[in-house]
Fold Exosome complex component Rrp41.
Amino acid sequence: MYNLKELALMDENGKRSDGRGIDELRSIKITVGVVKNADGSAYIEFGKNKIIVAVYGPREVHPKHMALPDRCVLRCRYHMSPFSTDTRKNPAPSRREVEISKVMRESLEPSLILSDYPRAVIDVFVEVLQADGGSRCAGINAASVALADAGINMRDLVSACAAGRLSENIVLDINDLEDKEGDADMPVAYLPNLEQVTLLQLDGKITTAQFSECLEKAISGCKLVYEIQKEALMKKYFGNELELKEEA
Ligand code: ADP
């Protein structure tokens, strides 16, 4: 099953470059409410990715002509800090960042009840402090939690996770090395309660059967992430009560 040519990415026992198994997520830590001046915020460590998200709004739209009479405008800005990668990243927004900002907005929008805030805007700022592959998924996870922290009416959280192909193996949660040296990377965002996919991208080549396996695996990863997102929100809002319950 394991192709030994791919030894750098997976050893003969099926262990990956960072020691994980095929179906293992990197460790994930989410802290809610880290930016004092924002209406909602979250900090996520997703493996070596470190990302901070701040949400402002609903608030008045500037420029005013952007306002919509029947719903709120959602604006997302994904940005990598100059020190977030191994070489200095130009702080000016790249085409990649413009694209990720767009897909992030599209993956978050279906979770929000934007008709509740006509003529307003919600701004989501995603700042990548350290990138290690899968930063769009990690950013979406933190953004959804930050939107919940801001009290925005929503149908569901958005949970995101990638799966990919290393030779014949479909693996969960692609890291930076696997992204660059692997064969395919499929980031997926998912509404876990509504069972709807809101983001599906694919970079690389896979067969139809591998596509289905990859999608299924990514969704199973999203469901694991969802539990961590819920826990982080519960900790902020019911932290003391939870501790008391555990003690009792
Ligand atoms: P994602 O982070 O969502 O996987 P990509 O697949 O485009 O997005 O990027 C994979 C990884 O490549 C990033 O997480 C980051 O570690 C690295 N990377 C992206 N852009 C740059 C850049 N301009 N300079 C150096 N490394 C970068």
Q: What stands out?
A: The chain has a mean pLDDT of 94.
